[in-house]
Amino acid sequence: MDFAACGETTRQPPSVSVVIPLHNEAGNIETLHNELSEVLQSLNCPWDIYYVDDGSTDETPQKLSQIAEKDGNVQVIFLTRRFGQAAALRAAMDASQGDVIITLDGDLQNDPRDIPHFLAKIAEGYDIVHGWRLHRQDSYLSRRLPSRVANWLIRKLTGAPTPDLGCGIRAMRRWVVEHLELVGDMHRYLPILARDLGAKSTVIVVNHRPRRSGKSKYGLRRFFAVLADLPLIVFLTRYRWKPIRLMAALSAMVGCLGTMMAVPGLVWTVLGRLPLGIPLLAAAVVSWGMSLILLAVGLLAELQVRLAMSGGRNAPYLVRSLVSNRHEAKVVRFPEPSPRLNSGRTGSYG
């Protein structure tokens, strides 16, 4: 199968890197590694695994160190404290070397035996393949119901067709990984961020298993965190390169509201009913002032975008291929990705 990632022009067989963030998963890590190694050894391509310990307080660091000492295909990254899943994923992605990147949760609920199915879809030409936990093995009230509501709302506001944004198992080509901006808790919106890059995506149904050991890190609090981040993801995908349009629309709405208050305010004032007219006129003036401020903010944001683009490293596009009668290139990367981590197999944390 041809897994050649967009931008990789190498004669060597395509490789696979599996990245797994972990926090207090001592009861699952050994079984996970055994299952994962068995699946990867059956692949006809080079592979490696990157575990990231995100500030665990149990025996996860010790067990990861033992695994790395025994298995030369494993690298372990120890973060100094708990930075969150998005930061842990980014650390592993920066360290990885594979043409195809597989993300996996460390709680054993994702089944490593699904990995060949993801690679088969990548071989068909897709840039990112998402998992769909159609038969999810979690509590209905605390996990599945909030997830369904959040997924429905996100699909309505962003237009993203992915039915299960929270699924932790997925496959991505190298070029997608290098241009993802995973900050804060944006890992939850990874399919939407990839779609915004122009990545060709699809979804496959995956096997979802009950948690065998440890405690889930998610609950109703995550539902509200997703909703809190939703306005940001809408802004990034719709108005990132044209903020003036959003701010101009808000400015017009506030300005119209001020006008609607000014008209009756003038009428009441002319009729001599000052207690009614003066407050409305004052509110109208405040609304007009806010309208001007919003417009000014939009202009400043637009200027900032143009200054960023003029530097040549923040262009609002990515080139998939360049073909002419003189040469052919798989991809022209723009901007260039940051240098990858050059870490050893094991490390220590603060």
TrEMBL record:
SUPFAM superfamilies, A to Z: Nucleotide-diphospho-sugar transferases (SSF53448)
Domain Glycosyltransferase 2-like: 17-178
Pfam families in the cross-refs: Glycos_transf_2
Alphabetically ordered keywords of this record: Cell membrane, Glycosyltransferase, Lipopolysaccharide biosynthesis, Membrane, Transferase, Transmembrane, Transmembrane helix
A GO biological-process term: lipopolysaccharide biosynthetic process
GO cellular component: plasma membrane
Family matches, as CDD domains: DPM1_like_bac (cd04187)
GO-annotated molecular function: glycosyltransferase activity
TM stretches of this protein: 248-271, 277-301
Domain of life per record: Bacteria
PANTHER family: UNDECAPRENYL-PHOSPHATE 4-DEOXY-4-FORMAMIDO-L-ARABINOSE TRANSFERASE (PTHR48090:SF3), UNDECAPRENYL-PHOSPHATE 4-DEOXY-4-FORMAMIDO-L-ARABINOSE TRANSFERASE-RELATED (PTHR48090)
Protein name as it appears in the record: Glycosyl transferase, family 2
Organism: Thermogutta terrifontis
The organism's taxonomic lineage, starting at the top: Bacteria, Pseudomonadati, Planctomycetota, Planctomycetia, Pirellulales
